[in-house]
């Protein structure tokens, strides 16, 4: 395996943890924050999102070669809306009586910013390969499902003293964990945990695989694009474009402002 | 008189007490994206209001025949997507015809304003609660006001957070999410005090 392939592979895999769609970019936030009040609901939402978003994001790759970005967004939303029908059937069949509990957060997946960002930016990136795109999409969805299951499990245990609707021997419960407001705060702390754990995971990985290149960690991501040592900058083949690559929400201006303030303090 | 009060209450509740962003998490992703560019904030809020109203109108008209079908429960997203697509196409076409320069310079905002969870959430709530056309439009107006308020709060919050010394791990999205959570608790407390 060549170094560029390894780098691309690591970059794709980093969408599970370091570039998680929910914890790093705030995508698919509504279902994660509000609807994930129990493990069963989270599992149902994860299953539905896999059925809806995975084929839609994969289909965007060939469609982006044919359609303009202005047309691609309604087409992508349309595909997602059609896939909602089998998703609802599958959820009803596999985890019954969950549709009412998910409320409007199941159909809302069809119009998430993840889909729109991917549909608007994919036509601009012509060099990517379908294999890398598919792997990135799979990793994005795995990352989302892990976050949903973690949130659902934790909130159900803390808020209802149950897990998968089975009673746990827990003395006290705090129903506040089931409120949307606490959903935001829990997601924030989970994001912090991921930021803290990512370098540890990378270090552990390098201990076992010393020849492999490092994935883009939080540290390198905080740098502006022109300053980073991306594969594009060093002339290597780029991995597939993912929705996260195209909409970095992190406050670069904030960082520059803080650096400026620290420089003034030092003077 | 009673009907007008109901409509007003629908809009006020949607705007302040059941804010789409803080109480329901709808459109949180798009607000976090929008606050990156200060100059686009007013325009993105205006587009959001326009698309909310148009999508609510078209979806109400479309849902009326669709609701007669026995499998209409499976068609909620399709109704919303068709309505949003019609609104998106109409606004894009009119802007392109009337003000082509303005359309070219701002067209990157249109897809995110037309297709987002706040606009679609408004449609799904109108369908779920079986709202009348006027109620749906007033709810869409309330959602648009709530979206604009949330954008303002988060933009200002982010500006103020940038002046504070925050631990490195909390910088950026985590601190902003905690800020949203605290505002959501405040709104929940306010709404919780309302007589039922």
What would your notes on this structure say?
The complex is a heterodimer of chains A (267) and B (196). Chain A has one domain (3-266). Chain A has 267 residues and is mainly alpha-helical. In chain A, strands 1-2 form a two-stranded antiparallel sheet. In chain A, strand 1 (162-163) and strand 2 (166-167) form a beta hairpin. Chain A is built from twelve helices and two strands. Chain B has 196 residues and is mainly alpha-helical. Chain B has a domain at 39-141. Chain B starts with a helix and ends with a helix. Classes of the chains: A mainly alpha (267), B mainly alpha (196). Chains A and B meet through helix 2, helix 3, helix 5, helix 7 and helix 9 of A and helix 2, helix 4, helix 6, helix 7 and helix 9 of B.
In short:
The complex is a heterodimer of chains A (267) and B (196). Chain A has 267 residues and is an all-alpha fold.
List the helices and strands and how they pair.
The complex is a heterodimer of chains A (267) and B (196).
Chain A: H1 3-13, H2 21-25, H3 29-35, H4 39-64, H5 69-94, H6 99-102, H7 113-121, H8 130-160, E1 162-163, E2 166-167, H9 180-208, H10 218-221, H11 243-246, H12 252-266
Helix pairs in contact in A: 1-8, 3-8, 3-9, 4-5, 4-8, 5-7
Chain B: H1 2-17, H2 28-34, H3 41-66, H4 76-98, H5 100-106, H6 110-114, H7 117-128, H8 133-161, H9 173-192
Helix pairs in contact in B: 1-8, 3-4, 3-7, 3-8, 4-5, 4-7, 7-8, 8-9
